[in-house]
């Protein structure tokens, strides 16, 4: 019997090739390293502004906490919360770190804003500094106070006035930015100013003035968090839940190893770690306990929304349109807490 050598070679080559393919790819398939959808990181683009309660998230990125939860997060920096909120509502970013106050005033768009996470509440980081002759908030009746209308500084002032039974019209608001207010205080052109730390303390020291109010005096409405829009929540609910899960990981790291967290964030922001830690100390952190309280049915967030709306209506000098359609949605929080605690 005659062998067909070419046919034999062809079969042999085919067998060897098949053996190679099986040998090479089988382990990959067995260990889930090939064509494994779970290894593909899901993406989320998040707007962020300079604020310790938001900047702390830099640690989650640098320590790869997001990646550990299967998420690739891109932070997009904005100069102010209003710009970030507009970008979020227009779909340029998937979500944005925002003050609840700013979300209630974001420009109308094709969708409605949804608040899904509380990152922090001001508790001493913001306040009112006065010239040396004024020792109480009541002393400021009829006086000039620097505060940018429509911003969180405006809210801080309204909150302080309400606490001391003063009306918004009892004071003259000079519509200027935080830094400009500090400059005018140093020049003696303002009686008081709403300022955040570290400028609050340093200004009081420089002008030998007084701090007559801080957000530590109340259960403050200066509530910061993560906002998205309803369409994004519907399409990227899993990604947002993963983001919140990672936020809880971050809060746990902040509790167990604060020195490491502040060092890494400080280095990344080119800021002294001790200075950043000091700035962050004036905030109540948005951990699981806080978010449960805030998002419970008819809880603090719902109440805060009503109070903020009332304050905006009582002092229309801000000239902003008040949104009536802001949604407080606790579904991602509930899902994240269930996953984090199991």
In short:
The chain has 342 residues and is α/β, with parallel strands linked by helices.
SSE blueprint:
Layout: H1 5-30, E1 42-48, H2 52-55, H3 57-62, H4 65-68, E2 71-77, H5 81-90, E3 95-99, H6 100-103, E4 113-122, E5 126-130, E6 144-146, H7 152-163, E7 172-174, H8 178-186, E8 192-196, H9 199-206, E9 210-214, E10 223-229, H10 230-235, H11 237-256, H12 258-268, H13 273-280, E11 283-285, H14 288-295, H15 300-314, E12 327-328, H16 331-340
Helix pairs in contact: 11-12, 11-16, 12-13
Task: Give structural notes.
The chain folds into two domains: 42-122 and 221-340, D-Maltodextrin-Binding Protein, domain 2; 126-217, 3-Layer(aba) Sandwich (D-Maltodextrin-Binding Protein, domain 2). Mean pLDDT is 88; it is low at 1-37. It starts with a helix and ends with a helix. Helix 12 (258-268) crosses helix 13. The chain contains 16 helices and twelve strands. It is α/β, with parallel strands linked by helices.
Question: What descriptive keywords fit this protein?
Answer:
D-Maltodextrin-Binding Protein, domain 2, disordered N terminus, 2 domains, 342 residues, alpha/beta, single chain, globular, five-stranded mixed sheet
């Amino acid at each position: 019997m005659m062998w067909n050598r070419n046919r034999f070679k062809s079969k042999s080559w085919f067998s060897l090739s098949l053996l190679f393919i099986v040998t090479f790819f089988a382990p990959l398939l067995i260990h889930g390293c090939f064509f494994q959808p779970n290894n593909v990181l899901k993406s989320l683009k998040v707007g962020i502004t300079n604020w310790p309660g938001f900047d702390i998230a830099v640690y989650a990125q640098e320590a790869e906490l997001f990646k550990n939860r299967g998420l690739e997060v891109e932070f997009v920096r904005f100069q102010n919360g209003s710009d970030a909120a507009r970008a979020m509502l227009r779909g340029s970013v998937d979500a944005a770190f925002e003050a609840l106050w700013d979300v209630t005033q974001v420009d109308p768009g094709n969708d409605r804003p949804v608040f899904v996470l509380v990152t922090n509440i001001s508790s001493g980081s913001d306040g009112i500094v006065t010239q040396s002759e004024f020792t109480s908030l009541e002393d400021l009746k009829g006086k000039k106070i620097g505060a940018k209308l429509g911003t969180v500084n405006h809210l801080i002032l309204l909150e302080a006035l309400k606490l001391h039974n003063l009306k918004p019209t009892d004071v003259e608001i000079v519509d200027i930015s935080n830094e400009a207010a500090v400059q005018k205080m140093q020049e003696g052109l303002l009686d008081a100013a709403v300022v955040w730390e570290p400028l609050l303390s340093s200004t009081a020291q420089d002008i030998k003035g007084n701090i007559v109010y801080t957000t530590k005096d109340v259960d403050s409405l200066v509530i910061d968090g993560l906002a998205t829009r309803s369409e994004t929540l519907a399409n990227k609910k899993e990604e947002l839940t993963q983001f919140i899960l990672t936020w809880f990981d971050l809060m746990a790291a902040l509790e167990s190893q604060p020195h490491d967290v502040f060092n890494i964030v400080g280095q990344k922001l080119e800021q002294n770690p001790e200075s950043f830690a000091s700035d962050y100390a004036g905030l109540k952190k948005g951990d699981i306990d806080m978010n449960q309280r805030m998002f419970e049915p008819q809880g603090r967030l719902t109440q805060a929304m009503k109070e903020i709306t009332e304050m905006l209506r009582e002092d229309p000098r801000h000239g902003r349109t008040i949104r009536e359609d802001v949604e407080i949605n606790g579904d991602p929080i509930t899902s994240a807490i269930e996953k984090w605690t199991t």
